[in-house]
Amino acid sequence: MPSYLFWLFSVIMLAGGAAVIAFRNPVASALSVVACFVGLAGLFIGLSAFFVGVIQILVYTGAVMVLFLFIIMLLDLKDEEKSAKPLVPIAAGIGLVAAFTMQLIGVLSRSPDTTAPALDAQTFTVAAAGFPASSKIATNLLSGKLPDVHLIGRTLFTQYNLPLQILGVLLLVATIGVVVLSKRQAD
Amino acid sequence: MAVVKLQRPKLNFGEKIYFGALIKGFILTMTHAVKSLLGKSVGAETLASSGLGVTMQFPEQRWDDHLPEYYRGAPALVTDEQGRERCVSCQLCEFICPPKAIKITPSEIPSDDPWAKVEKRPLEFDIDMTRCIYCGMCEEVCPEQAIYLRKDYLITGLKRADMVHNKKRLYEIGGTRVGLVNKWNELK
Amino acid sequence: MDILQIAIILVKIVTLTFLVVLPLVPLSVYFERRFSAIIQDRVGPNRVGIPFSLLGFKKDFHLFGLVQPIADGLKLFLKEDFTPAHVRKAFYWMAPALTVVPALITVCVVPFGSPISIFGHTEKLVIADLDIGPLFVFSVASLSVYGITLAGWSSNSKFPFIGGVRSTAQMISYEIALGLSIVPVLMYYGDLNLGTIVKQQADHGWLLLPLWGHDATHTLSSKLLFWFPAAIAFLIFTISIFAETNRMPFDLPECETELVGGYHTEYSSMKFAMFFMGEYAAMVIGSALIITLFLGGWSIGFGLDAVVEKLHIGDFYYGGFIHMGCFMTKLLAFILFFILVRWTVPRFRYDQLMKLGWVVFFEAALINVFLAALIVAAPQLQAAIIGIGSVLLVILTAAVIWVAKVSEEQPKILRA
To answer: A66, A171, A187: which to substitute to probe chain C, counting the most C Cβ within 10 Å?
Structure first.
């Protein structure tokens, strides 16, 4: 990805993130989160992770944040009042940020400082060797395309099949729970 | 209070699945569309349609020949066969007019006029066509049979002033009307 | 990336978005008015044309009123742009743009025709040849819900708010059915690139009309077997597109009899026109997607595509333009279908709409995924596994129907 696009999306993302806490109007804050997510999706797509980027928009921006906005509007939340700044929450916030920064530094310092291999024909050919010759992934790789959807699907359904099934059951339980709760209220 | 208990109609499987009704609807709308394109819509003939639907296409085709006798178009003043303007500016129409569209300025008829014995005629007679509601009360109330609703319906103008019919215009629209009761003639 | 490539992309964006898709919006408005008029035994707008009489000629050329949408647009431009005092200004201004922009962005993955080739340089008739086509369309289209929600909320009055809330709930609900219903199609083609999907349909028969191009891997019987899940998917997808674009019979967010105008009640002039445009552009894109996935996209069909692709004058292979014409014809036919449905089917009640989305389509789409997976995988499986799968499928279907039946509310006794 050209570096100016990286900077553009990073700025969108960071500005969105900062705006979430800067705005006093809850709807404006929710929209800032949306801007943040769109910037994040732009970064993903710039890293050739099309699927992740698009799912980011589809799930978080298109569904989760719409529900947030929906609830904010239905509850008719008023602008946040300017309150005297209590010390404890601020201190806790700073502590959290510090902890996360430490963790990030820790992870970054331990990860090997190598540049990712360029997405060129040679890398693709090497990668394609790891898959059956006639498979869709191998043919796509050999023709110079990154089949990210197929790769993610393959990883999910082979390497992480059990966690995936468990997650599916978890979601099913949550769905049934919601149905039961709403039914009980209606009676 | 009488309470009527209604049961929602029980739908059978075919009705629940909804497609039958959908297809019926499609057939209905498409029949209308085809008939409309062929100029064979129901009522196309009696409504003198243009050949597309039942609609008459206005500036080229007009309803004028089909207007009934009792059609209430623009109100207008009439003269009788003696060429006398029948209005005596009694202002009854001005008083009865529900939207107050009529404005009359009465005047005396000079003594050297052959119709001096009628005594009064309108100097100005304005009907504001932006206000007129074509109710025909003026025609009903007129003791002199001087104002009639004619079949003119195309009252247009580019300014408000254009829409006010003055006396001259009213007589133009009204023209001469024969066979009316002549209260005023050479004898009386 | 050199200058030429950027120039080609810009030309593609400008022509395909602004010269091909955007003019379809006024055109579909015209068709809407004319077709509805004909259905209702009226004439419709047939007067506005080129005013030759202004230039001193004797007769105007009325063109069947085709210039009417331009006159409408001009009228909307010249109207007073009135902002009520009680609105939340920033959001009120943002909302119309948020409705139009996503609808137009989705154009970029729709394949309009087969590649054209000139001087040995081949160019695809699609703006962005993404490998995640349908997902991209869904994700960007899901953003247009923000415009409607914000319009409803920022107008700060009751009717728009109810319209906005209805629209949000409806669009989120039907996105699920929309996404799930095309999973069988994607499984069948094993690809998410819309261009590849259309190419396969051109070679081996449209998904809903698989009558040509049989070979060893695409036998007629296998294609006909897949016709059933494809038809179910087509039905669910088409109806969900109706709901997603807020078209009749699901236009509850803006039903005039209840909500004045729905979410755009407080809007006037060009801001209102943007909502209008967004809605019709969404309809055009929805039709394009249905055609691309189920009805062969730009393909002419019956094995003619290979012939058309080889047509050329010297080095210039122009078959792509013929395919584009075919695509546009299909698109217009589908828009006419949208209009026919609008003037045929009465509006649903809101609870019926929600029930249709959550209870009928969601389950039907899920079962359809199962069915399609079974059919797609059948050639590689043993007979026993296929048998177990079919039994499971039947049990699952019966269970879902039973649950839906049990949970159905008993008819209430009404008072009159």
So the answer is: A66
